[in-house]
Amino acid sequence: MAGGGRARPNILVTGTPGTGKTTTCSLLADATGVCHINVGDLVREKSLHDGWDEEFECHIINEDLVCDELEDKMEDGGNIVDYHGCDFFPERWFDCVVVLQTDNSILHDRLSSRGYMGPKLINNIECEIFQVLLEEAKASYPEDIVIALQSDTVEDISRNVTKLTEWFNNWRPRRSS
Q1: Sign of CA dihedral 115, 119, 125, 127
Q2: CB neighbours (10 Å) of residue 16?
Q3: 78: nearest Cα among 174, 177, 175, 173
Q4: 8-20+33-169 is classed in which CATH architecture?
Q5: CA distance 18 to 102
Q6: Residue 65, Cα to own-chain centre: how many angstroms?
Q7: What is the pLDDT of residues 53-67, one digit of tens each?
Q8: 78 labelled ligand-binding
Q9: Does 114 show up as a binding residue in the annotation?
Q10: 21 annotated ligand-binding residue
């Protein structure tokens, strides 16, 4: 059962690249004192990948290696996981799944400024237009733990961090019946 043996919750923050995941997670980790796990960084640091995808200019993540790497840490609780995918993590790991969403024109500017172009840019904008990650989250986790939050501005991010900090501070483990 979600949260069965944990003293502190685990939160997954997902969303298309450029929606503010890392900023939100860093601020939330500071506010709550929990561990921020940036999966992209972890994949690079520990070589949890199967090489490089030339078309999309990114590592080909090895989902099994990532899950093996995180298993013990996630069982202990008190983690904020930051990644643009969510369907391969075990359902039992998370007590809250946050999907950040950003207006397409804002997202386009953010990704362009990061040097995204061609298929990588188009794919990520389409991903946001069709709400791919929200649908993925709803298909992968109990719907009552999935929340979508708008992340267009600094004010949105601040409001989201406040809301998630309140949720974190009020969280209680579910009792197994």
Answers
A1: negative
A2: 27
A3: 173
A4: 3-Layer(aba) Sandwich (3.40)
A5: 8
A6: 18
A7: 998 889 999 999 999
A8: no
A9: yes
A10: yes
This model's pTM is above 0.85: yes
Question: What does the alpha-carbon distance between residue 128 and residue 106 come to, in Å, rounded to a whole number?
Answer: 11
Distance of CA 33 to the CA centre of its chain: 18
Mean pLDDT of 150-168: 98
Nearest of 65, 66, 77, 87 to residue 136 by alpha carbon: 87
Residue 122 and residue 11: Cα distance in Å, rounded? 28
For the chain, the first-to-last Cα distance in angstroms comes to 9
Other residues' Cβ atoms within 10 Å of the Cβ of residue 17: 20
Q: Is 20 annotated as a binding residue?
A: yes
Establish whether 22 is an annotated binding residue: yes
**DSSP bridge partners of 53:** 58
**Domain residue limits, the chain:** 8-20+33-169
